[in-house]
């Protein structure tokens, strides 16, 4: 379904004396199958968010190709079946838009009739665990979890075949993170969509993803099944897993519910 082949991306260096740009991605190749969840794991500055922008057609690669259903993602026809949910839910919704207007915007763009849009909005809100009273609310009236649910409702509104989730739960409290991950699982089952889950949180990735792709300094270190994490060969991937386990252990020590959540995720 989604094929990324030998993609590279650089950004121009700062200043007139700079001779070359900084290479952010180098020789990135992978495939995402239909109904699959691929986690892209990396530390800050690893290039994972740049890759996300390329997957959404927001930016173009310097080299290589990105195809979705055999269409170039850079072309509008290749982008229309991919949607996104970003980390910063506070800026993802226009501050002067009500929830209703925010959800209606993509539906109008994709040709939905006015008479059907209202019914669709009510349906979408129910799917993400909100009721119709939220239609008239503005972003500042929503909690973080509620705002991200609205963003998810908007992402699924046009029934895309794939959603890029760029640190979509990292700004939420731990309990809300788990609720949103559960919601994403339910929506995946309902729509049969694929996710590309970009994150630095391995626990969340393991809970949601079928495979994990570790990226470091703009290059793929390793791609492994979420069920075979103990078999990683990359030292970088092993170090990230070790750190995640240590953090999980600290959370267990500081919270009575830590063991239950750790068992669910790992």
From TrEMBL:
Residues 2-242 form the ABC transporter domain. Pfam families: ABC_tran. It comes from the Bacteria. The keyword ATP-binding applies. Keywords: ATP-binding, Nucleotide-binding, Transport. InterPro entries: AAA+_ATPase (IPR003593), ABC_transp_ATP-bind (IPR050319), ABC_transporter-like_ATP-bd (IPR003439), ABC_transporter-like_CS (IPR017871), P-loop_NTPase (IPR027417). PROSITE patterns: ABC_TRANSPORTER_1, ABC_TRANSPORTER_2. Belongs to the ABC transporter superfamily. This is Nickel transport system ATP-binding protein.
């Amino acid at each position: 379904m989604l094929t990324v082949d030998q993609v590279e991306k650089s950004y121009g260096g700062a200043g007139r004396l700079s001779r070359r740009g900084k290479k952010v991605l180098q020789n990135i190749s992978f495939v995402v199958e239909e109904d699959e969840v691929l986690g892209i794991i990396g530390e800050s500055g690893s290039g994972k968010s740049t890759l996300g922008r390329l997957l959404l057609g927001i930016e173009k690669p310097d080299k290589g190709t990105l195809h979705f259903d055999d269409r170039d993602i850079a072309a509008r026809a290749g982008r229309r079946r991919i949607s996104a949910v970003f980390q910063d839910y506070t800026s993802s919704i226009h501050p002067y838009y009500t929830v209703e207007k925010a959800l209606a915007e993509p539906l109008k763009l994709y040709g939905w009739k006015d008479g059907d849009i209202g019914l669709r909005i009510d349906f979408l809100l129910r799917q993400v665990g909100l009721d119709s009273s939220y239609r008239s609310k503005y972003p500042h009236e929503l909690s973080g979890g509620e705002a991200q649910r609205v963003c998810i409702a908007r992402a699924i509104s046009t029934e895309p075949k794939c959603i890029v989730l760029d640190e979509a739960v990292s700004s939420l409290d731990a309990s809300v993170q788990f609720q949103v991950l559960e919601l994403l699982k339910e929506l995946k089952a309902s729509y049969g969509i694929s996710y590309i889950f970009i994150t630095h949180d391995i626990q969340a990735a393991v809970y949601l993803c079928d495979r994990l792709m570790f990226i470091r300094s703009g290059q793929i270190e390793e791609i492994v099944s979420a069920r075979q994490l103990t078999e990683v060969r990359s030292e970088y991937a092993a170090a990230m897993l070790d750190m995640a386990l240590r953090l999980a252990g600290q959370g267990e020590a500081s919270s009575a519910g830590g063991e239950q959540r750790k068992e669910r995720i790992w």
